[in-house]
Amino acid sequence: MTLADDAIAWYETNARDLPWRQPTTSAWGVLVSEVMLQQTPVVRVEPAWRSWMTRWPTPADLAADPPAEAIRMWGRLGYPRRAMRLHACAVAMVERHDGEVPSDLDQLLALPGVGTYTGRAVATFAYGQRHPVVDTNVRRVVSRAVEGKPDAGAATTAADLVAVEELLPPDEATAAKASIAFMELGAIVCTARAPRCLSCPFETACAWHATGENLPEGPSRKPQRYAGTDRQVRGLLLEVLRHASGPVPRQRLDVVWSDEVQRARALAGLVDDGLVEPLGADDFVLAGDNQRPQPQDL
């Protein structure tokens, strides 16, 4: 039995029942889930994913709406540029691929905002192809089970892709199952701070477990602070704009945060990122909202 075999056998009886893993889920649904799951927990993503797929079941449906609607629908998932990237992806797929999510990896990687991880994840999980799909969870599993180290590096490298590919079975369908199994194992068993080694299918084969070493003291990565940061201010500003039915005057945005310098910096950042558009000197809308008919025009 290989690590892949053990992981697949474990996955078949222990995997979480997530909607984007259902056989009926489209490649578009897989892509949406992968973008949403970046830096956002599953428990918050699942209801947002269901709402998104109900409103925009195909790329063409999303592309037909302005990007402002994607930002609104994104709600409070965080990192709202992901909503802009999904909208840009949808537009590109309509223009280049007749509204379909391409199955070719190079074509996936050419889509706006689709990087090494997301492209391989969609090709693997939606189309059953053989690619190394490497996120933080997978890197941690491989680091421990194969290399005997308690944790992996801070970012995915070419060496990580090679290491994971070497663990994949040659058959495409089986390799795809192994990829999702490795990821699930890292998410719910081989976790960063509280690994459940006695429940792990790699218990007897894991190089790190064999050392008997404990995890290093303290968090493996410094937690990101949110309160009082520009990210919090950006979120407050976007919350006002998301619920507005027309242009929002600067004075209305001024009340969300008392620090004028930080508020201005956060607003300028939203404009620079393309999430917000100024109308004149003192009015603002979400991206694309300046093309939407206002209530008095209907």
Q: Characteristics of this structure?
A:
Arc Repressor Mutant, subunit A; 298 residues; single chain; mainly alpha; 51% helix; 15 helices; Endonuclease III, domain 1; disordered C terminus
Task: Describe the structure concisely.
With 298 residues, this protein is mainly α.
Q: Look at the structure and name the CATH superfamily of the domain at 27-125.
A: Hypothetical protein, domain 2
Structural class: mainly alpha
Low-confidence stretches: 293-298
Examine the coordinates and then state which fold CATH places here, giving the name of the CATH topology of the domain at 27-125. Answer: Endonuclease III, domain 1
What profile does the largest beta sheet have?
A: 3 strands, antiparallel
Q: Alpha-carbon distance between the termini?
A: 66 Å
Helix content: 40-55%
Which overall shape is indicated by the principal axes computed on the Cα atoms? Answer: globular
* H/E element sequence: HHHHHHHHHHHHHEHHEE
CATH architecture heading of the domain at 27-125: Orthogonal Bundle
Summarize model confidence as the mean pLDDT. Answer: 93
Strand order across the biggest sheet?
1-3-2
Q: Measured on Cα atoms, how large is the radius of gyration?
A: 22 Å
